[in-house]
Amino acid sequence: MTTRRNFLKTAAVTGGAVGTAALGAAHIYAAEPKKITWRLQTYAGAALAEHVIKPSIEAFNKVAEGQMEIQLYFADQLVPTGELFRAMQKGTIDAVQSDDDSIAAPVDIAVFGGYFPFASRYSLDVPVLFEQYGLRKIWEEAYAEVKGVTWLGAGSWDPCNFATVEPVKSLADLKGKRIFTFPTAGKFLTRFGIIPVTLPWEDVEVAIQTGELDGIAWSGITEDYTVGWANVTKYFLTNNISGAWIGSYFANSDKWAEVPDPLKTLFKLCMDSSHYYRQHWYWGGEAKLRVEGDKLKLTTIPAEEWKTVEDEAHKFWEEIAKTSPRCAKVVEIFKQYNALMEKAGPPYRY
After folding, report:
1. By C-alpha distance, which of 310, 332, 308 is closest to 320?
2. Environment class of 341 (CB within 10 Å of its CB; exposed 0-12, middle 13-18, buried 19+)
3. Residue ranges making up the domain that contains 287
4. Alpha carbon of 43 to those of 82, 182, 204, 323: distances in Å?
5. Can you state the angle between helices 135-144 and 325-344, rounded to 10 degrees?
6. Through-space distance between the first and last CA atoms of the chain, rounded to whole angstroms
7. 265 and 142 in one domain?
8. Is there a single domain that holds both residue 43 and residue 86?
9. Long-range CB contacts for residues 166-169, cutoff 8 Å, separation at least 24
10. Is 147 in the same domain as 259?
């Protein structure tokens, strides 16, 4: 039997419970963190990004479970590649995957990003140089001097070979050729009469077809086949000017500071997963496509003649070393590392 006294007593208890629950729900709602959304632009066009970054970003978004989402954009899609660093500083975009050189990073060591001639022989050289020979500390120091951008880490990509319309069998064959390449690599290659050309990534294939370009020194053979350049060039020079491209991840400092530590750790793990994927993708692809690829004919400049290119690279190193004490330190590390590898012998150096 419900009496007035029992009803009021029950209502008071129930109302109190409801009120407490409502307050709890409001508290939970208020404390719920706002979803973080980033816009990340890579140096790579869509076909290449499918391999060099997209799988890792998709994995990040899946594991983040709605706490954070990274929207991926490709080469020049939001901002021209050469303006990426400044755009990231301003907060126009939140993060970047690229080499330091292409995005005009305002640090002295930017010249070593991308393809610094003959600094590495194999892709594994890059992580060893960063993790065991001090390059990580040097990069962190350099970017700490720049406001607004945080350098997150570096990894290795593919070697730098030439894919050309006409065969290259000697250094003389390269003279006068208009080649799409990276800034510092292009500066070095002018010593051999090459004319370096900078274009938006997506325009390269058409530029070869129209004769605006004679070739590419922007990748190894894996990328040539993957992105379609093997369809418009005919020859692949097996000699390379670098064994691996050095690329990095960067973020706007304010945006990076807003990311909770667990998500920062997740992002760095996804960076590592991308580094791992590229190691086997390029290593296997470079060998397989040289042997089984049916679009590009292989050519080689004799070792004795190519040695003159390597010797010239070491002169180039000395010139770069004079630009700053920090650059001199990096060059000295390259010297020590490569000397050790030579002494170690096969399979480290042949």
Report:
1. 332
2. middle
3. 37-157+244-292
4. 9, 12, 14, 26
5. 170
6. 97
7. yes
8. yes
9. 166/214, 166/234, 166/235, 167/234, 167/235, 167/297, 167/299, 168/215, 168/235, 168/237, 168/299, 168/301, 169/299, 169/300, 169/301
10. yes
Question: How many whole angstroms separate alpha carbon 234 and alpha carbon 221?
Answer: 12
**151 touches 250 (CB < 8 A):** yes
pLDDT in tens, the chain (350 residues): 444 344 334 444 444 444 444 444 445 455 667 999 999 999 999 999 999 999 999 999 999 999 999 999 999 999 999 999 999 999 999 999 999 999 999 999 999 999 999 999 999 999 999 999 999 999 999 999 999 999 999 999 999 999 999 999 999 999 999 999 999 999 999 999 999 999 999 999 999 999 999 999 999 999 999 999 999 999 999 999 999 999 999 999 999 999 999 999 999 999 999 999 999 999 999 999 999 999 999 999 999 999 999 999 999 999 999 999 999 999 999 999 999 999 999 999 99
Find out whether the peptide bond into 347 is cis, omega within 30 degrees of 0: yes
Specify whether 77 is located in the same domain as 183.
Answer: no
Contact 243, 125 (CB under 8 A): yes
Do 276 and 328 belong to one domain?
A: no
Q: Is residue 27 a part of any domain in this protein?
A: no
Residue 148, domain member (yes or no): yes
- Euclidean distance between CA atoms 339 and 327, whole angstroms: 18
**293 within 8 A of 234, measured Cβ to Cβ:** no
Residues 142 and 109: beta-carbon distance below 8 Å: yes
Cα(80)–Cα(309) distance, rounded to whole angstroms? 32
8 Å CB contact between 259 and 36: yes
Output phi, psi for 155, to 5 deg: -150, 180
Structure tokens at 198: 């900078």
Q: What is the DSSP letter of 50?
A: H
Phi then psi dihedrals of residue 277, to 5 deg: -60, -45
